[in-house]
Amino acid sequence: MMRALRYGLIGLVAFVIGLVAFLPARVAAGWAEQMGPISMGGVSGTLFDGRASYISGPDGAIENVSWQLEPASLLLARISARLQIDSDLSGFDADVSRSLFGQTTIRNVSGSASAGWLAKLGGYTFLPLSGDVRVNIDEAVFDDELQFDALAGQISLVNTRWQLFNPPVPLGRFTAALAQSEQGLRATVVESDGPLAIDGGLTLDATRRYLLDVRLRARAGADERLPQMLDQLGRADADGWHPIREQGRL
């Protein structure tokens, strides 16, 4: 009797897991739309291996999203998945995990998109700076209020140009290291290659206050319009650097 009951429970669990595994993604999408301010369209596949032509929310939308859920993570009170998102360049891949306590962890983020594509994603119709954005995030851990417990990675801007001139003014390539510090989130320029030299970084604290502390300088051979642009920021110091220090709240 006990053996039969045990095998019966095992069979029931296997049956339930099978139902969930093959649950149509469009049904799960309907549940998700009822729980939060999101909308999903063109949904196909299953809950564990699905695709959506778009996912939109209050702050924008992303297109051509696919995911592969990890069933074992459910046993640890987490939802973990591998995401793939299209962009106008190579797209983005990421491992995303969310706990029942509201903590989100993103790891192994890689990919690229144009600055204009990302600007439209954020609701901006025009961006004076053009270029390609390349992302490599090792880890980011944050809660629903976007308070970060950890952040590590790099973001690069490649082939950047200032679009408010005709023809545009070339600026170069820049890479910033992302980290969590005692002051908050910190983006520090670790590489600048091209007509514009940049040194310094940006800090964002837990109250969404930011401090931009950088200095700029045109390198030899730069477009003659670039030094004129920098002169509008203020007088250069003895070494030719134009310091910029601004603070505010996002």
Which keywords apply here?
disordered N terminus, 14-stranded antiparallel beta sheet, alpha+beta, elongated, 250 residues, 18% helix, single chain, 4 helices, 2 domains
Describe the fold and architecture.
The chain has 250 residues and is of the alpha+beta class. The protein folds into two domains: 1-69, no CATH class; 71-249, no CATH class. Helix content is 18%, strand content 52%. The chain has helices spanning 2-21, 25-35, 115-121, 225-231; strands spanning 39-41, 44-45, 49-57, 60-69, 78-85, 91-99, 104-114, 129-142, 148-162, 169-181, 184-193, 196-204, 209-218, 242-249. Strands 1, 2, 3, 4, 5, 6, 7, 8, 9, 10, 11, 12, 13 and 14 form a 14-stranded antiparallel sheet that branches. A hairpin with a 5-residue loop joins β8 (129-142) and β9. It is elongated and about 65 Å long. The termini are far apart.
The overall number of domains is 2
Approximate shape: elongated
> Helices and strands: which structural class?
alpha+beta
**Biggest beta sheet summary:** 14 strands, antiparallel
Q: Helices, strands, pairings?
A:
Blueprint: H1 2-21, H2 25-35, E1 39-41, E2 44-45, E3 49-57, E4 60-69, E5 78-85, E6 91-99, E7 104-114, H3 115-121, E8 129-142, E9 148-162, E10 169-181, E11 184-193, E12 196-204, E13 209-218, H4 225-231, E14 242-249
Antiparallel strand pairs: 1-3, 2-3, 3-4, 4-5, 5-6, 6-7, 7-8, 8-9, 9-10, 10-11, 11-12, 12-13, 13-14
Give a brief outline of the structure:
The protein is of the alpha+beta class.
